[in-house]
Amino acid sequence: MTRWLDETEQRHWRAYIYATTLLHEKLSRELQEAHGITLADYEILVRLSEAPDRRLRMSHLADATLASRSRLSHQIDRLEKADLVRREACETDRRGSNAVLTDHGWDALVEAAPTHVAGVREHLVDLLTPEQFADLGNALAVVARHLNSPDLPAEQLA
Amino acid sequence: MTRWLDETEQRHWRAYIYATTLLHEKLSRELQEAHGITLADYEILVRLSEAPDRRLRMSHLADATLASRSRLSHQIDRLEKADLVRREACETDRRGSNAVLTDHGWDALVEAAPTHVAGVREHLVDLLTPEQFADLGNALAVVARHLNSPDLPAEQLA
DNA sequence: CAGGGGTGGTTGAAAGCCGGACGACCTGTC
DNA sequence: GACAGGTCGTCCGGCTTTCAACCACCCCTG
Description:
Two copies of one chain form a homodimer.
Chain A: H1 7-35, H2 39-50, E1 55-57, H3 58-64, H4 69-81, E2 85-89, E3 97-101, H5 103-123, H6 130-148
Antiparallel strand pairs in A: 1-3, 2-3
The first copy, chain A, binds a DNA duplex through helix 3 and helix 4.
């Protein structure tokens, strides 16, 4: 038996779909117009910039950015062509490679970051009260944990 | 001067990106595996099913689903191949076409709806208290309104 | 230390997506 | 009633994503 969404739930759900789609597009477009990179590119650069020696294993980076291995591989191809990232062989595991942020990549990130942060503030954070934003973050943290955990049988909760 | 995100804001922002990406993927994959349609397809079918005579102008449908005209056109191509939707000429405006839900499309929607609703509940609604979910919806409604409105100069708010 | 199963990452082909250009058509104005 | 400017939907070219196959390598087991 399906328990349907009542009218209010449906309204909230549509607001969710609507807002998340629009926000993602807007932030990505702003980055692209100002700096020629997408939001996905930006997130890769951020991860690398935070990593020790500004390098990460491909698979780790794929997990962190929620990309498939194949997708990340292509994406790194492009970033490599743009000289924002380069690949290097992994010392300890000869199957592996590291993605390394180039100096040019670092500079690009430093330039793009204000655009990104301003967008996040303008189109999200500053539209809400601090409590609202905190509640949003906490609620979505629950969702993220749920979706990220290996699928437990639902019964386990009973 | 850029006002950076503090550590807490950053945590919330990452939860946002993480959860919205995962949730979208999960719901789309569930639909695809069970019924061979994506979330975007599903939303088109829903809009058509709710419209008078189960038909809508292409441009209206594009706006409603936040798709570019070009993207919608391709998407309708696919749905037409799958016999879920068909096109028909618009009577009152010879430039236009209507997308019409076929009987088969209606049946597919009726079949897919329980999967979708169950997913939304399992991975979002039922993870939160009713208040949390309502707050989420209301906060995102603010965001959606903001992003949807024609760009006012920021000064207008002062 | 040989073999088998698993993992890391890349690749190519096919499908999907977007922006921009386009032809067709509508509508207001003179 | 002609024309200018807008709107409707499609199409083209180029890029992105996905899927599945693949090679190279690791590691465990016997």
